[in-house]
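Structure (tokenized):
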């Protein structure tokens, strides 16, 4: 199995129609988006920190063979590869399997033209495919569930998690959840439901009781959203007032 799979299909094709070459790269790290605020009479810019990053790109080098059928076989294999890569109806799922067996995934789209280079003597073609992950993030494939009092199962991430789901058993009409690393605070305030669990999805700006009742009205988030942010050693931590919280999330890189 190769290190990359696209929509579940190994890019070292099991049928031998194509394989990755050594021009394939590791994912780049998206550049931080910097906000520069000038103040008259002040040297330089205000010291604002980056809160987001540009998309990431992945370059795939591929050698396409003729499957021992000459030029017609090569054309057939090129079209089969194009059917996988050149989707215009949705984003593709790119999976990256690391040498230690860890698996990460992200949604990608084709970025730029593909120009196959034909080698008549070997009836083969070499091409470069550049994929872009608009989110700028890789995620673990599997979700992790952990209590807010011990988020060590999420340790090791490098980027803030934007889509964690928080399941809250409120003990008060006001629940305050603060991310330790960033200081960002999420607040929910409202009437309680007997034996109810409140599911908060910050990425969707939504809160719902376990009986199906919408509770979004009481939700308050920072303007940029609420993320689980790792500290300098990749550890996540929350403080909670007014309830007990369970977190469901995937580490981000």
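Design, position by position:
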């Amino acid at each position: 199995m190769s290190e990359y799979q696209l929509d579940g299909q190994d890019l070292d094709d099991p049928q031998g129609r194509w394989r990755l070459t050594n021009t394939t790269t590791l994912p780049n790290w998206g550049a931080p988006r910097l906000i520069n605020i000038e103040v008259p009479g002040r040297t330089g810019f205000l010291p604002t920190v980056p809160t987001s990053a540009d998309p990431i790109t992945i370059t795939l080098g591929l050698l396409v063979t003729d499957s021992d059928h000459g030029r017609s076989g090569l054309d057939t294999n090129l079209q089969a590869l194009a059917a996988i890569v050149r989707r215009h109806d949705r984003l593709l799922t790119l999976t990256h399997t690391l040498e230690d067996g860890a698996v990460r995934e992200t949604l990608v789209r084709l970025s730029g033209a593909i120009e196959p280079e034909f080698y008549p003597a070997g009836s083969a073609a070499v091409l470069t495919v550049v994929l872009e992950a608009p989110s700028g993030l890789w995620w673990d494939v599997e979700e992790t569930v952990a209590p807010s009092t011990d988020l060590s199962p999420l340790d090791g991430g490098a980027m803030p998690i934007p889509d964690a789901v928080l399941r809250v058993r409120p003990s008060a009409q006001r629940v305050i959840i603060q991310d330790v690393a960033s200081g960002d605070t999420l607040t929910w305030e409202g009437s309680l439901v007997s034996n109810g669990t409140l599911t908060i999805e910050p990425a969707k700006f939504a809160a719902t009781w376990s009986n199906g009742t919408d509770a979004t009205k009481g939700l308050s988030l920072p303007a940029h959203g609420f993320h689980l942010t790792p500290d300098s050693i990749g550890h996540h931590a929350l403080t909670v007032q007014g309830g007990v919280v369970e977190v469901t999330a995937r580490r981000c890189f």
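Reviewer-requested clarification: The two ends are 22 Å apart (CA to CA). Residues 205 and 216 are 7 Å apart (CA to CA).
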